Every structure is written in C-alpha cells, then in structure tokens.
Amino acid sequence: MIITVLLGILFQEAQSIRYQIQRHQTIMDPIHDIHQVEYRVQMQFGSQKQPMELIIDTGSSDLWIPSIDAKGFLNNVNRYDCKGSSTCINTHSSYSVFYDDGPISGTLVWDQVWMHNIKFNQSFLLIERASGNMASSGGILGLGFNSNAANPNPSILESLYQQKLISKKYFSLYLKDEGEFGSYILFGGIDMEFIQKDQKISYVPLISDTSYLMGIEGMSIDDELFSITTALVDSGTSCLTVPAVAMDDMLQVFAAKGVECSYRVENYAPSYCTVHCFVNATNEQGIIDSFPIIKIRVNSSFELLLNPQDYLYSCTILDGSQSKCNTKLERSQSDDILLLGDAFLHSYYTVFDQTDKQMGFAHSINNKGLKLHVKTRHLVNFAQMLILYIALLLVI
C-alpha cells in the first residue's frame, strides 16, 4: 500500500496536538519555525522513541543526530543514546562532512526511526563533534540526493521509497509566515490546497544528478537582466543569496529608484541577511512601492517573481522622512549560483522530484501580499528618559 507521509511544520510547543493516521491521508509532526531562519521537524529514534529536532535541509543529503556523548551542544538540545535503544547497531565507522558552519564528524549507526508512528529502518550519522550553529540546532535532516551523501546507505527519501511507504521519490514543501501554523513537508505527494486557485505547477529540469540545481538565464529588475547561470533550491539557506557581481549591479538599480542599500553582517535575527536598505518612506504601502519586483528568469517563457513583501523582512521608521529595512537578500562570493532559500520558499509551493529529476513551482496561498513588520523607533521616549536621568543626577 502507498502511504503519503506529511510532516506538518507548526510552531506550537505548549498545546497538545491530535493526529489522524489513515491510508492516503496525512501525518503531521510539530516543528519550530525559528525566526524564518530554520525549519525543524521532529522525529523519534530507537526502541524508546527518543525525540529529536532536525533542520530540514535540501542542500545536503545526510541524516545527523547528536550523540549523548557529544560535546559543545546546548543543554536544551536532545541527544540520542545508542546504548539506551535495544535496536541500535553502532558500526563504529567514522564519517566527516564540511558544512558552511563548519565540520561535523561522527559514527554510522542503524536503528528504528519514526515519522510520528510510521516506523522504518534507517541508518544515520551520530554527531560526536560539531561546530558553529549546530551547538544550538540539534540534528540535520538532509533531503538531497543519496549520491551526494557521506553515508553510503539509503537516505531518508530512499528508505521511504524502498520500504514502500511512498510510491515515488519526491516531496513538496509549503512554508507559512513566522508565528503562523500550517507549514508542511509532504513526502510522496502534492497538496493542491496550498496552491493559489489560478495557478498550476510548472516544472523545470535539473542539471545535476547530485543536487536540486537548475539552469536559469538570470535575474531582472524592470528590463535590466543580471546574468546568473544556475540556481540551487536550498531550504537550509535562510536568505535569497545572490552572486556578488549580480548583487552589486542590482543594488545600483535600487539606488536609481531611491533605495540606498549596504552590506553588513549581523549575528542575530531578524537581521540575519547582509543587505540592509534605507528608503524615503514612512508607512507600509510607501515602503512597498519604493522597492522593485525581482524576477528570476528561468527561460523565455517562465519567470519566478518576488514582490517587495517577499524579500523584505522588517522595516523601522527612523524619523518623519526615512525608514531602515532589513531584507532577506544576501551577497554571495559565488560567481554564478543563485541560492533560493527560505525567503523564496515562502512564496512558492515547491516540488523536489528525484525520480524525474525536476523541480516544480507554483505560487503558494502564502503569496498574497504579505504584511511587513513595520515599527517606529521611539526617539522621543528615549529623550524623555535621558532628561529624567540627568535631573536625578543633579538632585543627588
């Protein structure tokens, strides 16, 4: 029998959730949306169903979970105890992978794995050493091609297919806004309810056997085209990451429209992307009207559009004439690869098809004129507090 497996991405820790499990229906698991930077799905491992939170990462292919003996992880990160599972088999074979955040190393183990209460056998890599953001993030659910994995055994997607839990090696992804419920990753199926009624899924062939890489003609603003030859769809990337030369040219067009932008690295959310802009507008609609529509030209007959609401994260009104905006844009040092991260996936329902080696895109129901996070810097209140503080010093 074919079981379509759906993992619901929800941000709700305190409330209990009921699940229905029937053939040809869905299975929903809770996950944290961390400031639109990470999306984590919950799975259970071993005979005791040890719970783990895993980052959904289409840019990598390995399943990593932290060992109970791993050093450097924060106390709130769940860790897996192989000795605590009667079904765990530790091969003691060592593996290492270098991610953008740094290297991860560990050993290969086999055990039972649950997506809610759908059980299957799976090998995974047990983290013994990690660096960077892994110390707070827990594990990684790599959903890339098996041929790109360090672990030579079947990946999660391969296992679901080989063990006849899905009929085809593909999954689809729908992301909602931060703080809202109802984002989903659907293994072995597509749910048209997440697609706008006037839309259909358009498919683009992949040009790689190891990643979700597709050929494109470039990005454009108005009639000006910025040459980029390839795009990688990567849920493990938070920003829309644009090659350096193309980004420099794009921001010159922004400047001609009255939007002045600069690069700055921030180590905290929500300013996690590096492009920050100033615009002469002080209300939501005025800000939106100041920024251009960005078009990703796949070919002469197909473009993927990003409205200002899609690539702006938040804006702060500085005074009576200007606002500062944090964007979901990032400048890459790569020459020709555009990274379509979560900033893009919020706007498009996306199909990752390994069987037919293609990507599918359609405007999601989330793409309908999103509201910006617009706030005012309370300079007056700060001045009043400063005056009060000075007066108290004079009295003392």
Mean pLDDT: 81
The total number of structural domains is 2
Percentage of helical residues?
10-25%
**Number of helical stretches of at least 4 residues:** 7
Give unreliable regions as ranges. 1-32, 378-383
Identify the quaternary structure here: single chain
Structural class: mainly beta
Signal peptide: 1-16
Pfam families: Asp (PF00026)
Protein name: Peptidase A1 domain-containing protein
GO molecular function: aspartic-type endopeptidase activity
Structure explained in plain terms:
The protein is mostly beta strands. It has two domains: 5-187, Acid Proteases (Cathepsin D, subunit A, domain 1), CATH 2.40.70; 200-379, Cathepsin D, subunit A, domain 1 (Beta Barrel). The chain contains seven helices and 28 strands. The protein has helices at residues 134-137, 156-162, 244-256, 284-290, 308-311, 342-345, 379-395, and strands spanning 5-9, 33-34, 38-45, 50-57, 63-66, 89-99, 102-115, 118-130, 139-142, 170-174, 183-187, 202-205, 213-215, 218-221, 224-226, 230-233, 240-243, 259-263, 275-279, 294-299, 302-306, 312-317, 323-327, 329-332, 337-340, 348-353, 358-363, 373-376. The strands form five sheets. Strands 1-11-10-26-27-12 form a six-stranded antiparallel sheet, with no helix packed on it. Strands 3-4-9-5-8-7 form a six-stranded mixed beta barrel. A five-stranded mixed sheet has the order 13-16-25-17-24. A hairpin with a 4-residue loop joins strand 3 (38-45) and strand 4. The radius of gyration is 23 Å and the shape is globular. The N and C termini lie far apart (80 Å). Residues 1-32 and 378-383 have low confidence and may be disordered.
